[in-house]
Amino acid sequence: MTGSASSQTGTPQVVPLSIGSGQSVDTELIARVDRACAEVEGSPGALLVLRLTGTAGGGAPPADLSIHTVNKWERALRRLERLDAVTIAVADGLCAGPALEALLAADHRIGGPELRLRLPAAAGEPWPGMAVHRVANQVGVARSRSLVLFGAEISAVEAVGLGLVDEIAADLDRAVAERVTAVGELTGSELAIRRRLLLEASAVSFEEALGTHLAACDRTLRRMQGVQPA
């Protein structure tokens, strides 16, 4: 797995975060996500690499999980999703539970050949958390139906076909290293603006979106001309 790189090599700093499919959503997991986000936020030019591991259990929420904890978990994922930095997720085996929820919040997703995706489940039914919202927005309602309503499991090939995973790699460490190098020159704050425009595209009309897109274009033009954006 890629670790924090030396600034002397020109390689961006990598902040790692591991989340298991069978992990419980609890205060410890939420704190780890928040700590990783804070480290990225405090390190200009850094990026976040999520290592998502699978287990046979599939990450069903515990019976004593409170709605307060669920709310804090969703907010932690939203913080991760809106970082002023690139987020890369790498997963193999069964990616379910909190691992799947984190995958859906990442910018670039790399899967191993044995990857399978399944939405979190509770009491034998798909969990109705914000993963449902992300899946529907990312692949459309019709293509999400079997995942959301019946908890269908999809393979790595199917995940790529749906756009839920960007690439399949036999050597995951190498694929991560190549992606880190490829995105190392991206400006985190500008990427965050483009990400927000993308996330809002399906919910905002052309007229409502025009001003925001023009402002983003103006920032890019100013940077091209060597003028510090406002």
Automatic annotation (TrEMBL):
Top-level lineage group: Bacteria
Alphabetical GO biological process terms: fatty acid beta-oxidation
GO molecular function: catalytic activity
Protein name: Enoyl-CoA hydratase
InterPro entries hit by this protein: ClpP/crotonase-like_dom_sf, Enoyl-CoA_hydra/iso, Enoyl-CoA_hydratase-like
Cited Pfam families: ECH_1
